[in-house]
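Lab notebook, bench 4. The sequencing result for the construct came back, and we need a structural model before the next group meeting so we can plan mutations. Quick request posted to the team channel:

Model the 3D structure of this chain.
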Amino acid sequence: MDVLKEVYKVVESRIKEKPENSYVSKLTTDDTKKAINKICEKIGEEAAETIIAAKDEDKREIIYESADLIFHTMILLAYFGVEYEELMDEFKRRMK
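Done. Here's the predicted structure in token form:
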């Protein structure tokens, strides 16, 4: 199993099970509007940090911040019930 799929499955389980010490759980346990705002704020923050890393031409930071951006995007997708396979299907569709 690829690592992105594994991470996605963990994110889904943290949203569903809401373990007490989980970062994902803390982002997603508020009421819907507040949770969405928190997740989107993190995506915006990580996108800005990725852009800054790129402008600084810092490959290590680009990798680090891109991983954060992808992770927070996964949280948003899983929060809205998007299955990993649905996302992969969209990528496959675009390759045609």
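The mean pLDDT is 96.
Will bring this to the meeting.
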